[in-house]
Amino acid sequence: MSKIGTLYGLGVGPGDPELITVKAFRLLQQSPVIAYPKKRMGSKSYAHQIAEMYVKPAPDKEMLGLVFPMTRDPEILEREWTNTVEIVWERLSAGKDVAFVTEGDPLFYSTFIHMMRGMQAAHPEVSIVTIPGVSSFLGAAARFNLPLADGDEQIGIIPATEDREAMRQAIESHDTVIFLKVAKVLPMIIGLLKELGLADKAAVATKVTSSEEMVWTDMRELERAELGYLTLMVVKKG
What we know:
This protein is an alpha/beta fold. It is built from 7 helices and 10 strands.
């Protein structure tokens, strides 16, 4: 039996193709298989676009698009994830290293987390190596030149939900709060900030660092805005 390949989780940053580590670049060059989350239709993901910028087409280089189910049905999720893990295992068992590219960081709200867990459960003999990447909230902090935490300040990274009281507690309990995927509850969050006298302490970014980046520092401009999925808000009290 041939040597089992290594599964790499490569974070390639939030959108700017230059925000990729030297190590991730090297592994993209070396790995015979580049796996990426594939959309069923429409445009390519940032991870896919960035990988293609650094990978030269070659007969011995496979670009492996993996479709992940967008559902909460546990039976469908288990079936589709099992299938996806086995597709990657087929390459690994043939002795090929697989570099799985993700936006941001592989271990921060990433599809790679599910791939890693599934592979560990089904094929524990596979060596898994994670290469950190720049997350979107770090890209946003840099874009706004906003220190996220200094000294003893506390920071919270919160997936935005419709639970108004939980969102209020998050704001009140931290010096800085990053609300991820905030678009779906933006009016509610802005309302909370107004109640707490913090409307002028917030900044919002969509597709931060990418060529499609949009930023707002005036919450009044956002009250009726329809923003995309990749939108986050930074609230800095100090």
